[in-house]
Amino acid sequence: MNIKPLLARRVQGLKPSPIRKLVPIMRMPGMISFGGGYPNAQTFAFTSVDAVFKSGRRFSIRDKAIDLACQYGPTNASTDLLPHIIKWHADKDGVALKAEQIQVLTGAQEGLHAMAYLFLDEEDSVVMSEPTYSGTLGAFRAFTERFIPVPLDAQGMITTELEKVLARMKSAGERLPKFIYDIPHGHNPAGVTLSLERRRHLLQIASRYDLLILEDDPYQMVLLEDQEPLPTLQSLDREGRVVRLDSFSKIFAPGLRLGYASGPAEVIGYFQLYK
Ligand SMILES: Cc1ncc(COP(=O)(O)O)c(C=O)c1O
């Protein structure tokens, strides 16, 4: 899909930071660069960071690894972390991501803010279930107050209602929303999971109206005991219109505030510019 017409005005002229292009050069052994404000690793406060897991496993970050961890690094992800995310995502969702389809974030919350920053002008709207996660409303409100509510039931967002809302907007000649936002597993605050049938329907609707979908999925792996995760919207998408937010907050430790956005390389390229 062509995302250019969907971008917010503030993003149209956004250019990559020249400092980012200097990173590989600055990392060349023996290079003393005056091109960026890179501090000397010898001045960093840490010699090592040791972690002991409840399982008894231990690991230590030291020597070159601790210097790298403390230094400014690539925008999209640490080069050590990236292959782990690619494998994790493939094992979990059956989706093979390329490096340029991933942007590591300070939690999914940053992804909500990034998405709004990239796509929402004041006159734009977003479709979402009612009720929805208050943190999403908080992130989006900095850019627009136009939220188009769709009711939900035990199967998640009622997609036939979504269809009606969009048809009504179109026939009234109204500006269509920029994207559909949903929390497809263990919805916050409703607790419901979007059924497989509705996942497919949601994608069909997005295709018909040429909309992006923001799949905010922090509860995919913390469902009730009798529930299995369903295929993600991203895994069902054949047209590159799903931007997915994964979070390690609910399954690892929220204090680390680690998450990532994944999706079409062009959209993730804009996430990288944002970051
Ligand atoms: C639906 C939803 N999205 C995003 C977040 C934020 O996740 P993170 O801790 O990764 O920023 C939360 C946290 O409660 C949430 O419930």
Structural commentary:
The chain has 275 residues and is an alpha/beta fold. 35% of the residues lie in helices and 18% in strands. It is built from ten helices and ten strands. The protein has helices spanning 9-12, 18-26, 63-70, 81-93, 107-119, 134-141, 159-171, 196-209, 233-236, 265-274, and strands at residues 48-52, 58-62, 102-105, 125-130, 146-153, 156-157, 179-182, 212-216, 242-247, 259-262. Strands 3-10-9-8-7-4-5-6 form an eight-stranded mixed sheet, sandwiched between helices. Strands 1-2 form a two-stranded antiparallel ribbon. β4 (125-130), α6 and β5 (146-153) form a beta-alpha-beta unit. α5 (107-119) runs parallel beside α6 (134-141). The radius of gyration is 20 Å and the shape is globular. The two termini are 23 Å apart. Bound molecules: pyridoxal-5'-phosphate. The site of pyridoxal-5'-phosphate has 13 residues, from α5. Residues 107-109, 133, 135, 183, 188, 216, 218, 247, 249, 254, 259 line the site of pyridoxal-5'-phosphate.
